[in-house]
Amino acid sequence: MGYIIVSVVSGILFAVLDGVINANPLAQRLYEVYRPLARTSINPLAGMVIDLVYGFIMAAVFLLLYTSLPGETGLVKGVSFAFLVWFFRVVMYAASQWVMFNVPVEALLYSLVTGLGEMLILGMLYGLTLKPAI
């Protein structure tokens, strides 16, 4: 599949997964601590544009790192990429939240687990569909 198609698909997937992860009743209960800071409404167009940009950037970074990622197959490289992104995107965020704010551990664990799932889905998509032109 081409880079542009995969980037658009991954951007849409980002948006859908973020919605599922953050708008479900369990997340709403766990993230209650953020309610005083949270917006009362969201801008879906801005969110979609941001997630599409993320899709393009993530796909490009995957392609740039492809030969350096561990694994012999695209799928394994995708999973390796997912763990790398999960660490820099989710684990570091959760650790910062834990250090700086009084956030319930359950909310942080939820973020870690769902973030890993999201990154694995995206990483597998990249690994199964993208390969640098050599």
Descriptive overview:
This protein is an all-alpha fold and 134 residues long. The protein has one domain. Helices cover 75% and strands 0% of the residues. It has five helices and no strands. Helix 4 packs antiparallel against helix 5. The radius of gyration is 16 Å and the shape is globular. The two termini are 15 Å apart.
Summarize the structure.
By secondary structure, the protein is mainly alpha-helical. The chain is built from 5 helices and no strands. The two termini are 15 Å apart.
Give the SSE layout.
Elements lengths: L2 H21 L1 H6 L13 H22 L8 H27 L4 H25 L5
Helix pairs in contact: 1-3, 1-5, 4-5
Q: How many structural domains?
A: 1
**Number of helical elements:** 5
| Binned strand content | under 5%
| Morphology call | globular
Task: Determine the N-to-C terminus distance.
Answer: 15 Å
Give a quick set of tags describing it.
globular; 75% helix; mainly alpha; single chain; 5 helices; 134 residues
